[in-house]
Amino acid sequence: MTFESIEGYLAQMPATILTRLGVGTPTSLVTGIDLSPYDPTERIVVVHLDNFGLLEVVLHKPQFLLKEARLILTLDTPNGFATNVFDELTHGNLHDGFHLFSYLVQQGKTAVVVDREDQQNNAGKATFRPAESDMRTYIETAKLLNRSDILYIHFLDFDTLYKEHTSRPPLELAQKLLHRTDRWLLGFYKQARPRTLFLILGNQGQRDYGLKYEGKYQNWATANVPICLVIYKPAGE
Predict the structure, then answer these.
(1) What is the rounded CA–CA span in Å between residue 145 and residue 32?
(2) What is 118-169 written as a DSSP string?
(3) How far apart are CA 196 and CA 44, in angstroms?
(4) Sheet of 43-49, strands arranged across
(5) Burial 202-222 (b: 16+ CB within 10 A, else e)
(6) d(CA 204, CA 55)
(7) Residue pair 53/202 in contact by the 8 Å Cβ criterion
(8) CB-based contacts of 177: which residues, under 8 Å, 6+ apart?
(9) For the chain, how many structural domains are there in total?
(10) Is 62 left (phi over 0), alpha (psi -120 to 50) or beta?
(11) Largest CA distance in the chain
């Protein structure tokens, strides 16, 4: 499967999401990335994978993501760590002056956040569902799919794995974890109603394992910026 790659800025994501949901964008936000081929969008699911990047896509080849993704966004940012990625996703370039989920609620949309309990204060006016583990996040997401205009979920098992193994976990463990998550995402896709847009957001992939790549894969393997895989479920599926 081949797909397009677009370079952009992480600060463009709030306006991108607002545009897809048909909500007016504050003029002070950075202009969004054009995802017009994926119109019309009735709901968005943002899946944030900690410590997942282009290298993991190339190295472990998650089947669902590679089959269904038609577009990869590489998102430049001064800080690719998870906390800042979430901050730019919700605040864009306005920092505390704008909150994506709160703004959507103010515009009459519904927003739900599934994350660790200590992140509740970051959810703004979104409905918050605490999940103490990735398994719990998976269960909560299965309950909540199709019930909001935007659903944000956060998987952290990759981050835990890399911390436990000093950023160089055994390849077999990393691959097993990614393939499990890939199967979960496939299940979400099957469950989702048509015209759902999935944004698979990954912050900072890991350093190269010493493997050799050619062509565009060589650039991907060394990339250490957040990425977003765009997956759309059209009508009729």
Answers:
(1) 25
(2) GGGGGGTTSEEEE-SSHHHHHHHHHHHTTSSSEEEEEE-HHHHHHHHTTT--
(3) 6
(4) 4-9, 71-76, 227-233, 196-202, 43-49, 150-155, 111-115, 127-130
(5) bbbbbeeeeeeeeeebeebbe
(6) 10
(7) yes
(8) 157, 158, 161
(9) 1
(10) beta
(11) 50
Residue 226 neighbours by CB distance under 10 Å: 29
Question: In the numeric block, which tokens belong to residue 65?
Answer: 């993501």
129 - beta bridge partners? 114
Give Cβ neighbours of residue 172 (< 8 Å, ≥ 6 apart). Answer: none
* Residue 58 counted as domain residue: yes
Question: Does the residue 21 lie in any domain?
Answer: no
Spatial contact of 141 and 112, defined as CB atoms under 8 Å apart: no
Q: How high is the mean pLDDT in each 10-residue block of the chain (237 residues)?
A: 82 97 94 89 95 78 92 88 89 89 98 96 97 95 97 84 59 81 97 97 61 48 74 89
Q: What's the CATH number where 150 sits?
A: 3.40.720.10
Decide if 229 is inside a domain: yes
